[in-house]
Design brief:
2 copies of one chain form a homodimer. With about 675 residues, chain A is an alpha+beta fold. The first copy, chain A, contains 14 helices and 29 strands. In chain A, a hairpin with a 2-residue loop joins strand 14 (about 335-340) and strand 15. Chain A is globular and about 105 Å long.
């Protein structure tokens, strides 16, 4: 509405475009897609009166000035739909344009008039005028054809039915009269990320634990571990902070506030006289070693992910160089981190409310830029929810403008609104509540929320059964079976997932104390030695699961996830299917790590395009067993001590030859 | 997100304000309220980190520059709520402001520290600094008290518990540090209308049918009818168009395209050599007669409503004076109204796509202005959905800026999106699908949609069982009982409703032809004589129902409507209750006009504040019968030939005296 007395709108438009989906927070935030994915746009589009409307979806890469156009189609109840694909990494824009289509209205009405055997001689002249106007805009043969048609319409002897010539109508559709078109108020954005943003398997490890007995592990040791990690099928190797570790207030083993001489401290207490966020902990190696590791990882088809934790140890150089970036207490001391009554004296937070906040933002952004220059493309960001939203929005959008292929994983285990805001403002992937969703009810409710619009349009979840901070009670008490259950859930519910190893594959499950989720002898505070050849190792299973993920495109996206009814609440069943339905994976999971469970699974055979009259195969890719199923309800029994899950690939019946059935 | 490289946001804000409700179409449209009603505003408000947040709701009349403020309260899951009342007609604005409240955070943390028996000497100094800063903003005794308190905080011997003094915290709340506050992006609007916009009973009649036998009725005859209409309890008398009726292509009886000499024509074919939209049909009287009628109506507590139909008869003066406002066909003729193959040659539509659309808009707006000057405050607008949305938005907002008490009723029997858009852009009340909602399923589904946000925030429904264009099949076939059912539904489901009389109260139900909703011998095309003393007249019942509406505030608003379970699908039960619960009306309706139906009604006694251990009275205001009910399930039986409905007023048990129970 205009606020000025008698001010006319700029345009004499007759069309309303409302309820556009997807549109995140009034277009303030961008939708997320990866290369090659489709964007399906819907809107309510309607005008006054009864004229025919035409609508198009307009889209372009932000860097290109030219819109491409796709016609939108009418669905029902004033709802329209259009679609486009994004084939390039970077920001894309889309919007909608619609207009009263007088030619289409004329053609619809002419048909009714002819059916009612009315005199249409004047109507044919009306049509001729529109065709002539279109001919003026057309060139070459189009213009000639249109002019010839206009001439026919003007001839009194013409059979009126010729006016309905569909070929001519098709030609006219190319030259619509869009002088009074309505363009949607906003241009909406899509951030198009590389495929790795959608489909990724992460492996977290502490390089310092990779050294030979008694030695601090190095980047060179990390290189030696690459073949093992590649063999397990991971795409991303994520290292905790690699910077110099603070020496004052350094923590000792098991989070002891007092550290013994020689203890290594927590990598998240960043900075000492040896340097800060742009330096490397000397015991890990040099910057050249690090660059070399990035290259070696890439040779193994692994991207290296860095951990960015914006906080300082009390001896971080920033504190002397930029005292104004920190909060000073009345006694002259610097404010350390607290969650009263808990004190974290080994950590000093930045004061984002300081007067020089612009200088602080610039410096923090330059930390990313420094590591991007070394070759890093993937960042895991520690506790982003304790820094201002506006900072992240500014920082990530600035970085992605130059490097649109960057990936940022948000580690914000906090309230849903905050977690969602961080995803909206630019984080590529998000940690989430998966570690604490164990029962069928919890899992189905939670995934229903995060896999549907609007959440699925801006948040990509990354599922972690464990982290150095999270050893869940389910893992503590469920034995090796619990680790198998959580691994398979993470790897099949999520196109992106990760584990913190070798603690995970070795089923490490001792907590520091009862009711704690902290590891006993946590690697955060000490160097551990892992016996990778231990018999309980899940490395083989992990390798098999990651191979199944790579061979089955259905598991490489989260859009196709749906749950299926089972008659036993300990059995969870869900499927993922590619849009063309050629690849379908059904996972059936016994959520109980202790007992065998069995039950009946209901499947929507029509949606799966399974012939109800034919047997179909369910091929368990974990055990290479083939089950012969029939009808929409089939039996499953899972003994967790053998295997707690099936990862079943549907093979539909294709043909019979000499009494032998083939399944694909 | 900024689009410029490295551009910092203007403000270093740490708070997000999202999902504000109510907010209609990104604040483009205004919320609707009437004087005295409340606006309850909710929002997700959250910041980074763990600091305490404070939030206020700001509101003001658009014409006043000063915001008023109300604190918002935290509900749960980052959701906040605040409320304000609107006590003045006209546009009001509201928005939200929130900030990190360092003083509240300090106080919360201090308490935790004290509980943990930590040394808080430095924390007390931190607090003292904040109190001193507040003292600088305060004046008089507040400033003195704060300074004294700061001094105490600075004294080493002070008991730390004194720092938690709630009285001081209350004082500090008056001087918050809002330097880095976040103000919500938009200022949202509320249109505050007069009470008549919320609660109104409309009566439509054709003045020309009020004359003595053989004579054309006049405004004087209308004046004579006022006492009867007031006696029936109506607030608004709505007249079909009162302008000169076109003579060329005038329609005859029963919509005959050829009219016989002396036939009066349809009042909706507006304009002749005698004048157009600013003139009065000579046979009705003069402009002075009309002004007199407006005054006389007001003496009877009745507002006169005019019908504004923006269309012209072929001999309307506009057509000669402004030929460019109409579409010319290639043969030189003016385009008449059509819905192919149907032709409406007595009507010429305006061409809103003409080059002089600004001139056309101005003239149409001046039609309203002309009649406003004569004293009209209520307009019924004919077919607004066949004129551009942008025109209505511009026209109504312009008119209401000068006359905020105007009421516009939208007659748009069209698709839901279009109906809703007209309500959003400024129409005060809306006709709707009520005439065709007959079964329990239809009624509950439809009213669930239109009585809940977001629809209820912008659309006020006005329920019409009949109009001169709508004689539903239910009325055609259900006899007098059907008219009673539809009357009581309209008058109790809707705080605003209307009837077209005397056809309605005389139960006129003959259609022009089978399967038609047109009246036989429709008053639209001829003058009718009505026998108001006919025995079937519902005038008495209508008067009683309107008296019940006036005496029971629960029926004067639509916000309290809710449906209740019955075990018989022919029985519909619903209640309306005032916010203070003092007035509660329960309607039980037998939807079947032919047979007696009985069943059990479930009521939520706790929400109704009925003592479950006591008998309560249900007082039928239609028949003055008092039923004694007990518990949450009670029996009802309704014989439509006696009375198809109860309009029950709840009377709760109050006290017993000498074994005699009182109910209020």
């Amino acid at each position: 509405m205009t606020d000025q007395e008698n001010a006319f709108p700029q345009q004499n438009s007759r069309i309303a475009i409302e309820n556009v989906t997807p549109e995140i927070d009034v277009g303030h935030f961008a939708l997320k897609r990866t290369m090659g994915e489709r964007v399906t746009v819907e809107a309510d589009i309607f005008g006054d009166g009864h004229d025919v409307i035409s609508a198009i979806l307009k889209f372009r890469a932000a860097k290109s000035p030219d819109w491409q156009e796709m016609p939108m189609t009418f669905l029902l109840n004033d709802r329209w739909r259009g679609e486009f694909s994004v084939s390039e990494i970077g920001v894309h824009l889309y919007t909608i344009e619609a207009w009263i289509d007088h030619f289409q209205s004329w053609r619809r009405d002419l048909k009714k008039r002819l059916d009612a055997k009315q005199d249409v001689s004047v109507d044919l002249l009306v049509g001729a005028e529109m065709v002539e106007a279109a001919a003026k805009k057309a060139k070459g043969p189009d213009a000639e054809q249109l002019l010839a048609w206009a001439k026919i319409l003007r001839e009194k002897k013409t059979s009126p039915e010729r006016a309905l010539d569909p070929q001519m109508a098709g030609l006219m559709a190319g030259y619509p009269d869009r002088r009074i078109a309505t363009v949607y108020t906003r241009e909406l954005r899509v951030t198009v990320d590389p495929p790795l943003a959608r489909f990724s398997a992460w492996y977290e490890l502490f390089p310092r634990s990779l050294g030979a007995e008694g030695k601090h592990g190095t980047f060179k040791d990390c290189e030696a571990a690459l073949p093992r990690i590649a063999e397990m099928g991971f795409d991303i190797l994520y290292l905790p902070p690699i910077h110099p570790i603070g020496k004052s207030f350094r923590k000792g083993r098991n989070n002891n506030p007092k550290c013994q001489p020689g203890e290594p401290g927590s990598p998240w207490a960043i900075g000492s006289s040896e340097g800060g966020h742009k330096s490397i902990h000397p015991e890990l190696g040099t910057i050249d070693d690090f660059r070399h590791l990035i290259e070696k990882a890439r040779e193994n088809k692994i991207e290296l992910a860095m951990d960015i934790a914006f906080q300082c140890a009390p001896d971080h150089p920033y504190i002397k160089e930029h005292p104004k970036w920190f909060l000073k207490r009345p006694d002259g001391s610097i404010q350390y981190a607290e969650n009263p009554p808990k004190k974290y004296e080994d950590i000093v937070p930045f004061n984002f409310e300081c007067d020089d906040w612009r200088g602080l933002w610039q410096e923090l952004k330059s930390v990313f830029e420094f590591w991007i220059e070394q070759g890093i493309r993937v960042f895991r960001v520690d506790n982003p929810h304790t820094k201002p939203f506006a900072f992240w929005e500014w920082c990530i959008s600035g970085l992605k403008r130059k490097n649109p292929d960057l990936i940022f994983l948000s580690e914000a285990f906090t309230r849903p609104r905050v977690m969602y805001r961080l995803a909206k403002l630019g984080f590529t992937q998000s940690y989430n509540y998966f570690p604490w969703r164990n029962t069928k009810y919890e899992l189905t409710e939670y995934f229903a929320e995060i896999t549907r619009p609007p959440v699925s349009d801006f948040l990509r979840y990354n599922l972690w059964p464990n982290t150095p901070d999270i050893l869940t009670q389910f893992l503590q008490s469920g034995g090796r079976e619990a680790f198998m259950i959580r691994l398979i859930l993470a790897a099949t519910l999520g196109a992106s997932y990760g584990i913190y190893g070798p603690a995970f594959e070795l089923c490490e499950n001792a907590p520091r104390e009862p009711d704690s989720e902290e590891y006993l002898n946590s690697e955060k505070y000490e160097i551990r030695r892992w016996d990778l050849s231990a018999p309980q190792s899940l490395a083989g299973l992990i390798g098999r699961v990651n191979r199944i993920r790579r061979e089955n495109p259905a598991l490489q996206s989260d859009t196709g996830l749906r749950f299926h009814r089972t008659d036993n609440d300990q059995l969870l069943a869900y499927s993922k299917m590619t849009p063309d339905k050629s690849n379908l994976i059904l996972v059936v999971m016994n959520l109980n790590p202790y007992y065998t469970h069995s039950g009946w699974i209901d499947l929507p055979l029509d949606e799966f395009e399974i012939d109800t009259h034919r047997t179909f195969q369910m091929h368990d890719l974990l055990t290479d067993t083939r089950f012969f199923w029939h009808g929409n309800r089939n039996y499953v029994e899972l003994n967790p001590h053998r295997f707690p899950a099936h990862i079943l690939r549907l093979r539909r019946y294709t043909r019979t030859e000499h009494d032998f059935d083939y399944f694909l």
